[in-house]
């Protein structure tokens, strides 16, 4: 599959994120960029007293599913911090990456809203950043 542009990608998270098109229009915020970073598996030092040369390592049984950052067009009437201050269970999160025209490749998991930033500039759109810590397995 060739590389594709991001137009048509969107994210859903609880009731606060959506792209404004298609089935993602239910969200409160319009998303302008999505980044899923930090997916990694730790390695454990398995070296011992008889190891020679380079250290030996084994992969951890668990992996860190990373975090998702979404740049949004901010609506000050929506109060996303309630997802930080009052939600103690993980919410469903799904990222739909553009995959050639009208198709999307969906990655889904559970996550917690861990950070929110908002800004307002003269003669420009009000923007913000939402950060979601992914929890559990990615499917």
What is this structure's SSE topology?
Elements: E1 10-13, E2 17-18, E3 29-37, E4 40-45, E5 57-64, E6 67-73, H1 82-85, E7 91-98, E8 104-119, E9 127-135
Parallel strand pairs: 2-3
Antiparallel strand pairs: 1-7, 3-6, 4-5, 6-9, 7-8, 8-9
Keywords:
mainly beta, 50% strand, 3% helix, 139 residues, single chain, two-stranded antiparallel sheet, 7-stranded mixed sheet, 9 strands, Pnp Oxidase, Chain A
General description of the model:
The protein is mainly beta. It has one domain (10-39, 55-135): Hcp1-like (Pnp Oxidase, Chain A). It is built from one helix and nine strands; from the N terminus they run ββββββαβββ. It has one helix at residues 82-85; strands at residues 10-13, 17-18, 29-37, 40-45, 57-64, 67-73, 91-98, 104-119, 127-135. A seven-stranded mixed β-sheet has the order 1-7-8-9-6-3-2, with no helix packed on it. A two-stranded antiparallel sheet has the order 4-5. The protein is elongated.
Instruction: State the strand order across the main sheet.
Output: 1-7-8-9-6-3-2
The CATH architecture term is: Roll
Class per helix and strand makeup? mainly beta
SSE order, as H and E?
EEEEEEHEEE
Strand content: over 45%
Question: What is the fold-level CATH name, i.e. the topology?
Answer: Pnp Oxidase, Chain A
Instruction: Please tally the helical runs, counting DSSP H or I stretches of 4 or more residues.
Output: 1
Kindly report how far apart the N and C termini lie.
20 Å
CATH class: Mainly Beta
**Morphology:** elongated
Mean pLDDT: 84
Rg, rounded, reads 19 Å
Number of separate structural domains: 1
- List how many beta strands DSSP finds: 9
Q: Characterize the biggest β-sheet.
A: 7 strands, mixed
Oligomer: single chain
Helix content: under 10%
